Amino acid sequence: MSDAVHSHNAHGHGHDHHDDHHEEGAHGSFRSYMIGFVLSVILTAIPFWLVMTGTLADARVTGFIILAFAAVQVVVHMIYFLHMNSRVEGGWSFMAMMLTIVLVVIVLSGSMWVMYHLNANMMPHADMQMDMGSTQEMRLSNEMSDMP
User: Who contacts 132 (Cβ-Cβ below 8 Å, separation ≥6)?
Assistant: First the structure.
């Protein structure tokens, strides 16, 4: 056998230590996947039950509770299925995720703030509707009087 072609096992690169190249905690076990699955089912079933039974009378409170359960479920998916924690990749993936969350919160809250204020300040009010109606009537009467 030439020097260019050699056995992979001759240099200690066999497949028996394949998992040594990965950082600890990078792969989940069957137990962690099952914990994530059970938590996901519970976090889906509770909001479904709240909506279907009408347990809470106020729709806004129900909506906020559903949003809270959704946020918790996103965290469960990131931890148990995407394996994002502070140990993986020296914590950089976790820091990138935190920056992304901060930017998304800023963009969404800013957008909601702008849309609320545009709605409050730019939408015509009931008294404006009446004024516009009388203005149109005045224009019509002026046009009628200008006719020969």
Answer: 124
- pLDDT for 136 equals 62
Give residues with Cβ within 8 angstroms of 1, minimum separation 6. Answer: 7
CA distance 53 to 68: 19
Distance CA 61, CA 39 (A): 22
Query: What is the pTM assigned to this prediction?
Result: 0.54
Taking CB atoms within 8 Å and a gap of at least 24, the contacts of 51-54 are none
Q: Each residue of 108-127: pLDDT tens digit?
A: 899 888 988 887 788 776 66
Closest CA to 110 of 102, 121, 120, 122: 102
**Residue of 132, 123, 41, 121 lying closest to 80 (CA atoms):** 41
The helix, strand and coil proportions of the chain, stated in percent and rounded to the nearest 5, come to 75, 0, 25
Q: How far apart are CA 2 and CA 80, in angstroms?
A: 47
Give the amino acid at 79. I
Average pLDDT over residues 84-107: 85
Convert 85-118 to b/e letters by CB count within 10 Å (16 or more is b). eeebeeeebbeeeeeeeeeeeeeeeeeeeeeeee
